[in-house]
From TrEMBL:
Native species: Pseudoalteromonas ruthenica
Entry annotated with the keyword Hydrolase: yes
Keywords in alphabetical order: Hydrolase, Metal-binding, Metalloprotease, Protease, Zinc
Any single GO BP term: proteolysis
The protein, known as: JAB domain-containing protein
Length: 224
């Protein structure tokens, strides 16, 4: 069935306009992005097939170019468009943080970091430097490691925080395995960083572990 054969209230574009984007399923959102289907398959059916083959939206959005193009009806044009949309979303969230949402909106921080660290195959350690009002000054990836671990040096973190004249910091690192649960090593290095930064009166507001679509907050766990 073609999308034009559906009742107006069931067509993705019309549904978005009347009910808002949040009312649409993953397949319906992708259908708007795809615009058209392929022979014998409308845009919604095509989206549902690809979501099933890719085992969900997160895996599809994180797919490399070659893997993405293996899906029927997909190609370089759609891949570049989708990557551009993801980057626009990441920059929007970063702008929100820069406009003082920062730590006063923990969910905004988590959303931004999920996009920033999504799909990375190597572990990285990222620091958000904030001022006394918890407004974002800068974001830096200070360390990169193997797929298993990243070496984090407290002295380098202190130097970077002083360079930015930060009043506080938020740490984040990813687990390429997709499991966001903090390890014992994560807890140990966090304690060392808190001690080192405490010597120069810089607070650690949180340490977030990002795994896939999930985030675990040290602050919410009472681990700081």
């Amino acid at each position: 069935m073609r999308l034009t054969d559906l009742p107006a209230q069931q067509r993705p574009r019309e549904k978005l306009l009347t009910q808002g984007a949040g009312a649409l399923s993953d397949a319906e959102l992708l259908a708007i992005f795809f615009r058209t289907g392929i022979a014998g398959c409308n845009a919604i059916d095509l989206a549902q097939q690809i979501l099933s083959q890719s085992q969900g939206l997160h895996t599809l959005l994180a797919a490399e170019h070659d893997h993405f193009c293996r899906f029927k009806g997909m190609g370089t044009a759609k891949y570049t468009q989708l990557q551009a949309a993801i980057e626009l979303a990441r920059r929007y969230l970063q702008t929100s943080l820069e406009r003082a949402l920062s730590f006063d909106s923990p969910q905004a921080v988590q959303d931004y970091l999920k996009l920033e660290l999504k799909g990375l195959q190597r572990e990285v350690f990222l620091v958000l430097f904030v001022d006394a009002q918890h407004r974002l000054i800068s974001t830096e990836t200070l360390f990169q490691g193997t797929i298993d671990a990243a070496s984090v040096y407290p002295r380098e973190v202190v130097k970077a925080a002083l360079k930015h004249n930060a009043a506080a910091v938020i740490f984040a690192h990813n687990h390429p395995s997709g499991i966001a649960e903090p390890s014992q090593a994560d807890e140990v290095i966090t304690r060392k960083l808190i001690q080192a930064l405490g010597l120069v009166d810089i607070r650690v507001l949180d340490h977030l572990v990002i795994g896939g679509c999930h985030a675990v907050s040290f602050a919410e766990r009472g681990l700081l």
